[in-house]
Amino acid sequence: MVNKSGSMTRLRLIKHAPGAPGLRILGLGPNLLPSKGLLKLQKLFDEHAFWAQKRNLKNLRKLLSGSTVVVSLWRGKRMIGFGRATSDQIYRAVLWDIVVADDVQGQGLGRKVVEALLSMKAIKKVERVYLMTTHGTEFYKQIGFSNKEDQKLLIKNNALLKSI
Ligand SMILES: CC(C)(COP(=O)(O)OP(=O)(O)OC[C@H]1O[C@@H](n2cnc3c(N)ncnc32)[C@H](O)[C@@H]1OP(=O)(O)O)[C@@H](O)C(=O)NCCC(=O)NCCS
């Protein structure tokens, strides 16, 4: 992508440390610079992830803190992609909240986010990686996941306390 000055805006993929402390506590983005990262994650979710809208900053910090692997994708100062996973580091991991901004979808960025997550130490040797998706089945099939017809997804919903 070309910016206003005519130069290319660099794409940066960040593989965060477990719990993403830099992003979570200081809002750090590319080059570990303060980037209002948490606000940008909130905006990305609000605008492009229908299941993750209206998450407050306090709960986003908790979400990051409880994530084993976290990836964010930036173009210049804009966060354009995100993904995270929880993992027991040996048997099971689950991908969560994979999102790429609408206007940059279809350029291989979602694949980059998922492949980066799967390449991280805490997940790469895990026996089985799960995910749940509403509209992304074909995308995940393209990158190596398959339907598990003999298993069912069961859910128990709890009321979310907005300001825990
Ligand atoms: C799903 C999502 C992350 C995919 O990101 P993306 O950057 O558009 O995907 P990519 O460009 O990396 O696509 C990777 C591959 O999947 C394919 N693909 C992507 N979306 C697809 C779709 N809806 N149907 C069929 N194939 C699809 C691409 O053609 C590409 O295949 P190729 O490598 O053979 O060319 C993105 O569309 C998104 O954020 N959607 C909204 C949120 C969402 O639904 N997330 C899913 C988790 S619930």
Any key phrases for this structure?
about 160 residues; about 30% helix; 6 helices; alpha+beta; Aminopeptidase
Text of the CATH class: Alpha Beta
Largest sheet: 5 strands, mixed
Q: Can you give the mean pLDDT?
A: 94
Provide the CATH superfamily.
Gcn5-related N-acetyltransferase (GNAT)
Residue windows where pLDDT falls under 50 for at least 5 positions: none
* Lateral strand order in the biggest sheet: 1-2-3-4-5
Order of SSEs: EHHHEEEHHEH
C-alpha termini separation = 40 Å
- Shape, principal axes of CA atoms: globular
Q: What is the SS-derived class?
A: alpha+beta
Number of strands: 5
Number of helices: 6
Q: Architecture, according to CATH?
A: 3-Layer(aba) Sandwich
What's the helical proportion of residues?
Answer: 25-40%
Number of domains: 1
What can you tell me about this protein's structure?
A hairpin with a 4-residue loop joins strand 3 and strand 4. The protein starts with 10 loop residues before the first strand and ends in a 22-residue tail after the last helix. A five-stranded mixed beta sheet has the order 1-2-3-4-5. It is α+β, with helices and mostly antiparallel strands and 164 residues long. The mean pLDDT is 94. The protein has one domain: Aminopeptidase, CATH 3.40.630. The radius of gyration is 16 Å and the shape is globular. It is built from six helices and five strands. It has helices at residues 21-26, 37-48, 57-65, 109-119, 121-124, 137-142, and strands spanning 11-16, 69-75, 78-87, 92-100, 128-131. Coenzyme A (COA) is lined by residues 48-49, 98-100, 105-111, 133-136, 138-139, 142.
